[in-house]
Design brief:
Strand order of the largest sheet of chain A: 2-1-3-4-5-6-7-8
Radius of gyration of chain A: 17 Å
Number of helices of chain A: 11
CATH architecture of chain A: 3-Layer(aba) Sandwich
Strand content of chain A: 5-15%
Largest interface: A-B, 30 and 30 residues
CATH topology of chain A: UDP-N-acetylmuramoyl-L-alanine:D-glutamate ligase
Oligomer: homotrimer
Chain lengths: ~260, ~260, ~260
């Protein structure tokens, strides 16, 4: 196990506490290009963490919205023509004004044109790419592993957030493993998408992308764990995670954070 | 404080009671052009009040849907190309057949093309413009106040519903202040959008637009207050407001209404 | 009352039990072209039953998604230009590879172009057409009845699932009546749409379309009944039906199934 540059458990928990406090104080605006299935839940997760979501895709408007935001999420689910155009405009805007942005290459394993777009976007250097095992395999051609994730991060000069039973976060030099979250979270649509939006929010208030990513995964995972313990199924989990994220505080984060 | 033409507390509470009863009996059809984030929650709020929502944007179909509806909502959130076209067709249809309609100029402070469209739509005389303080400032150039709202309503021959800690409703002559609602409501996406849809529904059953607006804000605010008292956060509030709107009755409305 | 070829109560309950078990084991991929209002709830219903939903409409991608799926849902709600194109591509793909598919002609009674599309699609022989009384009347010109449903099924060589207080399922020869479900289910948007998606999922694991349809209506109706008993209104019902579908087991299905 690696414990490189300051991502020990205690420092990670403290980072999560600090970043959550900054979200509540600064209330960053996060522009989300996300799939239509995920929009409502994603907006509610951002609001529950104190952030201000916006979601428009209109080519006439998206420039202004991105310019007025502190971070951008690009999620490839339900990738229609308008979303494709919106992505290009938004990413050009974000790169031009050095806005942090997250790429979530949803279902990149299911359609070739989507994979092509994902490769192109990674070439524009998102701050973080958040993806699951199937998506990692489809995108990199390699079996997901800590080493493969580090190599991919290094090669593309990005932070990789690889979701799984244990989440792996790496910038190619440093690596952290996050054990928060609950299996029931996989039974609700848009759970990962909303987590990526929260990650964009954390990047808005923390310049070190690996710290922001660890914090986001810890915050979201802890809220999910506490929520799952109170839930009778995925429906109530979706409600309870919003409530628990809204009520998340320092003692809970410190007690539940699982990072090494 | 003004108490003009019949918007005293008791008459306002009674109006809300009457209008809610009419919603349950007449089950008006409300066509909603609303942002994709808000569609599901908006439909559930309308259904909970006994109304029949429809949401299509297709240029081929929207004429028939509006013609078959008793009120129209135009919400500017997520303003893509198709929504722009749909708005024009729907508003022309509504104006032509004297259908009441509500304009909710969401995020008009965030993008110039959106503000331009909002100005144009206000020129077509919606029955009611429902907006918050930032949107009022962006649209009118004036700091939000009862006097500014009255002036804007008079000038444009519309009813203005200005949301805030206290809501202000005015047609330029009469004015009412509504103190219902709960701060937690601001933490759920589409809460205001859904409230504007309920307002469109009230216009479908009450020809006096200021009375319909007061009733809608009281009904929605009371449902939200009762729901907030039972909720542990914004997630459960979103569920509970639907339940409480569905179960709202005359004694609760009469007991909770805060109007002067 | 008819008891033709093996759709007695006990065999229907057993079919529902078997099909639910197959959903959990095989986890079929179901591609859904559905209205934007219904997408989130539909995805959560499919996930709660163990299935894998996808929802993209992009003309570039939908071919791959349908080819990788085990069933297709075509729902005509919010019928915009992109959805129209997506429907054609997806249905051609489904028919070409003999994928089962469900047509849900939502609001076909509200706009003529939608009715025309529905007729054309029925000519391409969906496995099942699921519709309510108004939609049946608009589509067939006949008052809904068991005999009218049988005639329509026979003529078009489809299975008809006619929703109502009692649901009727027929392939033109066999007929079954399903008494599961709860009136409160009509107060939540997308309830019928999500039920049709679950039906598509059942077709993915059961080649006999009438058995799959009966099973889907029983499974969804039982989950809804149990959920309604725990709910204080439509908001909590929407949450509870997801939980109860997730937790649905053989004894509950066997105890609650109402089929004859």
């Amino acid at each position: 196990m690696h414990h490189p540059t300051g991502v020990s458990r205690d420092s990670a928990a403290q980072t999560a506490v600090d970043i959550l406090a900054r979200l509540h104080t600064r209330r960053p605006r996060v522009h989300c290009i996300t799939n239509s299935v995920a929009q409502n839940f994603t907006a509610n997760i951002l609001l529950a963490a104190g952030c201000v979501p916006s979601m428009t895709l209109s080519p006439e408007e998206i420039g202004s919205f991105v310019a007025g935001a502190q971070a951008l999420l690009v999620n490839l689910g339900t990738l229609d023509a308008e979303r494709r155009k919106a992505i290009t405009t938004a990413v050009v805007g974000a790169v031009g004004s050095r806005l942090p942005w997250v790429l979530d290459p949803v279902f990149v394993d299911r359609a070739e044109p989507r994979a092509a777009l994902a490769h192109e976007l990674i070439g524009r250097r998102p701050s973080v790419v958040r993806l699951n095992h199937s998506e990692f395999l489809a995108l990199t051609g390699n079996k997901p592993s800590p080493d493969a994730a580090m190599a991919y991060a290094r090669k593309n000069k990005i932070v990789v957030g690889l979701s799984g039973e244990t989440d792996i976060v790496t910038d190619g030099e440093r690596i952290a493993r996050i054990g928060n979250g609950h299996p029931l979270m996989a039974n609700i649509t848009a759970m990962g998408c909303a987590g990526s939006a929260l990650l964009a929010a954390c990047l808005a208030v923390e310049p070190d992308a690996i710290r922001a990513t660890i914090a986001a995964l810890v915050i979201f995972g802890v809220a999910g764990e506490i929520a799952a313990a109170k839930s009778t199924g995925p429906g109530s989990l979706a409600v309870n995670i919003v409530d628990n994220l809204y009520n998340l505080d320092e003692p809970k984060l410190a007690a539940y954070a699982k990072v090494d």
